[in-house]
Amino acid sequence: MVKRVVVGAHYGLKDWLVQRVTALLMALYTLFMMVAAPLAAAGGYEGWRGLMSHGVVQFATFLFIVSLAYHAWIGVRDIWMDYVKPVGVRLALHVATLVVLVGCAGWAVQILWRL
Amino acid sequence: MPEPAARKQRPKYLNLMAIRLPVAGYASILHRLSGAGMFLMLPFLVWLLQMSLSSPEGFQSLGAVAAHPLVKLILLGLLWAYLHHFCMGIRVLLIDVHVGVEKSAANASAKAVLVVSVALAVILGGALLW
Ligand code: HEM
């Protein structure tokens, strides 16, 4: 039997892949928004709201929010795993991270879907 | 049984000031720092999003919030963080698919990321915040 020595963060192909896919989705959304947001905001509140309540943009923004939360979860968890050794403290930080991310994602989605 | 590589003697101490990192090392650390910083500021950013979409008055008052010097500084920092993280992220993705892996290319792209994200942050920040 092979004795596996786990030496820290950054193991797990699935998380690695998820972090890349979410990064790509966020990058595409960013490029789109760098053009669309200034154009829309030039029309003041109405223009900005018009952009964010458009069906396709809502779909893309929802994907962005979910991607960001998942991406940041993997990233921040890796950082805790690299620097925080005591299991209890680490667990508490993981839970706090999840709470912040799920909370922010839910809050942002609710802002979006109320439009 | 031979010692597993991971259990080899660790350095007893590290003198951080004596370590010379290649440029890519600094760009990498800043990628991590920027990711952590954006994570910490996430509630603030969602709050701004909420305000911008709440009402015409809310949208207007964004300007008043951003007028505070401390808020300006935070927003400028976040702008840089996003730009650096974004550029560095693209660089990581390209290296993952074996684009720009050679030492000279990887060095050059790390330098480019550092310079471009600071430059873009100054230009965009200047246009949006001042
Ligand atoms: C366009 C948007 C983004 C892109 C292209 C991107 C890209 C990436 C990539 C490729 C990695 C993996 C780096 C590696 O394995 O060496 C990464 C890590 C990470 N990202 Fe992002 N990211 C984006 C947005 C964000 C946002 C908005 C946050 C936080 C709110 C974030 C937080 C992190 C964190 C904490 C890590 C872990 C860093 C580390 O382990 O050193 N990212 N990002």
Task: Please explain how this structure is put together.
The complex is a heterodimer of chains A (115) and B (130). Chain A is mainly alpha-helical. Chain A has one domain (12-114): Fumarate reductase/succinate dehydrogenase, transmembrane subunit (3 helical TM bundles of succinate and fumarate reductases, Up-down Bundle), CATH 1.20.1300.10. Chain A has helices at 13-41, 44-53, 55-83, 87-113. In chain A, helix 1 runs antiparallel to helix 2 and helix 1 (13-41) crosses helix 3 (55-83). Chain A starts with 12 loop residues before the first helix and ends with a helix. Chain B has 5 helices and no strands. Helix content of chain B is 75%, strand content 0%. Chain B has one domain (23-129): Fumarate reductase/succinate dehydrogenase, transmembrane subunit (3 helical TM bundles of succinate and fumarate reductases). The longest helix of chain B is centred in the middle third of the chain and has 28 residues, at 69-96. The A-B interface holds A 3, 5, 7, 20, 23-24, 27, 30, 44-46, 48-49, 52, 72, 75-76, 79, 97, 100-101, 103-104, 107-108, 111, 115 and B 4-7, 32, 35-36, 38-39, 42-43, 46, 49-50, 52-53, 55-56, 58-60, 82, 86, 89-90, 92-93, 96. Protoporphyrin IX containing FE sits between chains A (19-20, 23, 26-27, 30, 68, 71-72, 75-76, 78-79) and B (31-32, 35-36, 38-39, 42, 85-86, 89, 92-93).
Notable traits:
heterodimer; A: 115 residues; mainly alpha; 3 helical TM bundles of succinate and fumarate reductases; B: 130 residues; 5 helices; binds protoporphyrin IX containing FE
CATH class of chain A: Mainly Alpha
Order of helices and strands of chain A: HHHH
Give the uncertain stretches of chain B in residue-range form.
Answer: none
Number of structural domains of chain A: 1
- Which stretches of chain A of 5+ consecutive residues score pLDDT under 50? none
Q: In the CATH classification, which architecture of chain A applies?
A: Up-down Bundle
Name given to the CATH architecture of chain B: Up-down Bundle
Structural class of chain B: mainly alpha
* Secondary structural class of chain A: mainly alpha
Kindly state the percentage of residues in helix of chain B.
Answer: over 70%
CATH topology of chain B: 3 helical TM bundles of succinate and fumarate reductases
Report on the biggest sheet of chain B: none
Question: CATH class of chain B, please?
Answer: Mainly Alpha
Average pLDDT of chain B works out at 92
Q: Helix coverage percent of residues of chain A? A: over 70%
The total of beta strands of chain A comes to 0
